[in-house]
Amino acid sequence: MTFKPLVFSGVQPTGHLHLGNYLGALRKFVALQDSHDCIYCVVDLHSLTATLVHDDLADQTRAITAAFLASGIDPQKHIVFNQSRVPQHAELAWIFNCVARIGWMNRMTQFKDKAGKDRENASLGLLAYPSLMAADILVYRATHVPVGDDQKQHLELTRDIAAKFNNDFSRRIGELGVGQPVEMGEETVNGFFPLTEPLIEGPATRVMSLRDGTRKMSKSDPSDLSRINLTDDADQIARKIKKAKTDPEPLPSDLEGLAGRPEAENLVGIYAALADTTRAAVIGDFGGRQFSEFKPALAELAVEKLAPVSAEMRRITADHAYVDGVLRAGGERAAALAEATMRDVRDIVGLLQG
Ligand code: AMP
Ligand code: TRP
């Protein structure tokens, strides 16, 4: 027997979701529902790593949940919940803190960016963030994780943690008979955790700022014109696209012509992702045309695709009882799965239970 295919992903309840989150993550979550069992989690414990004190963590958690549901995730078929309801995540993260090495964490570019110059003063949680992320995934022994490009390094670390755990405990895993064949490079070992595959592909794995095509579209950018929020109305969306930075040349007639033109490349990628087509097809339609023609077409497409999601999100966000019910039911299903894994993990590590 090998690991059953299972999709897991998480989004932090911090700030508003933007077009990058939608195209890089949410739309992929929705697409995977037909072919896989999926678990989608609002990772509220991760939000404590940057700032411990939040005024509205519960409402932000509901808003992200509403975005999941408004995008089309089905909470009956799949599992939707918030991380802190399932304490097994934090329990496994502790064990992973003892598997992972400080050097591994120190190398994470997200940690370096977020901690800035004063690393000594960053929270220990910010350093250990990837260990909790690995636990989120591996407490379900999930095999596939859809994310944007910025999470690639964290997923490599998740594989490193799984591999080291499998190696360090190979004898116990064998004795207890809880292993599965795991391919590690050339050889196949009897391991407990799968080496999870990232799912990062498509035309919008890294949506860039509308004001600067070399920077990622981000919640933390001070300029609201840099991003399209899922809560923006049709006028705001159209205005931001109209004001998006571009160069003076018309769109090129082939894909190679996008090289060295980050703003043009970004807008073409956004169009392709929203229209569910390729960048080559967009260039096929718009090659040689001016931005003054392309931008209104893009704005119309963005409004057509995003306005229904944003309206549905507002409707669901207001219904606390419904959202809380989804999270409660999802949390119960998730906890049952997570506890089954943790019973084996406690045995493997040698902790006394039962
Ligand atoms: P975050 O909001 O940082 O928790 O990210 C939630 C998900 O959105 C993750 O899978 C990220 O990789 C993805 N994401 C965030 N920003 C972008 C972006 N600019 N382009 C594509 N995906 C993104
Ligand atoms: N680190 C991810 C982000 O900032 C959020 C996250 C936490 C996550 N745990 C996860 C994503 C597990 C995928 C799987 O976007």
The CATH first-level class of the largest domain comes to Alpha Beta
**Order of strands in the sheet with most strands:** 1-2-3
Structural class: mainly alpha
Hetero ligands: adenosine monophosphate, tryptophan
Shape: globular
What is the H/E order? EHEHHEHHHHEHHEEEHHHHH
Main sheet overview: 3 strands, parallel
| Annotation, overall tally of beta strands | 7
Helix content: 40-55%
Number of domains: 2
Number of helices: 14
Q: Beta-strand level of the residues, as a percent range?
A: 5-15%
N-C termini distance:
27 Å
Spans of at least 5 consecutive residues whose pLDDT stays below 50 are none
User: On the 0-100 scale, what is the average pLDDT?
Assistant: 95
CATH superfamily of the largest domain: HUPs
User: Architecture of the largest domain in CATH?
Assistant: 3-Layer(aba) Sandwich
Report the C-alpha radius of gyration, rounded.
21 Å
- CATH names the topology of the largest domain as Rossmann fold
Which descriptors would you attach to this protein?
354 residues, mainly alpha, Rossmann fold, Tyrosyl-Transfer RNA Synthetase, three-stranded parallel sheet, two-stranded parallel ribbon, 14 helices, 7 strands, 52% helix, 9% strand, globular, binds adenosine monophosphate, binds tryptophan
Describe this structure in words.
The chain is mainly α and 354 residues long. Helix content is 52%, strand content 9%. The strands form 3 sheets. A 3-stranded parallel beta sheet has the order 1-2-3. Strands 4-7 form a two-stranded parallel sheet. The protein has a two-stranded antiparallel sheet with strand order 5-6. β1, α1 and β2 form a beta-alpha-beta unit. It binds adenosine monophosphate (AMP) and tryptophan. The site of tryptophan has 13 residues, from β1 and α7.
